[in-house]
Amino acid sequence: MSIRPTTGLARPTVTGTAAYEIRVAGHLDDHWSAALGDLTLVRLADGTTSLTGPVVDQAQLHSVLARIRDLGVPLLTLRKLD
After folding, report:
1. Which of 3, 9, 53, 69 matches a 20 to 30 Å C-alpha distance to 78?
2. In a structure prediction context, what are the per-residue pLDDT tens digits for the chain, which is 82 residues long?
3. CB burial of residue 59 (10 Å; 0-12, 13-18, 19+)
């Protein structure tokens, strides 16, 4: 059996640091900032927390998301900022 390369699939390209906003349910304490890649935490009036800041690569982004998962905090949104 031979494996042929797949053609026609778009592959994402990652070039350097990008800023992200991650929204989670509930209010996180400030001490979680260091554990979440030193992102800026802002507790919002709607009962959510916004985490924003630069992420150097996809590996760091996945690490932050894994930590959020491990905290048991529901992830609401993830968006790349311009």
Report:
1. 9
2. 455 555 555 555 555 789 999 999 999 999 999 999 899 999 999 999 999 999 999 999 999 999 999 999 999 999 999 8
3. exposed
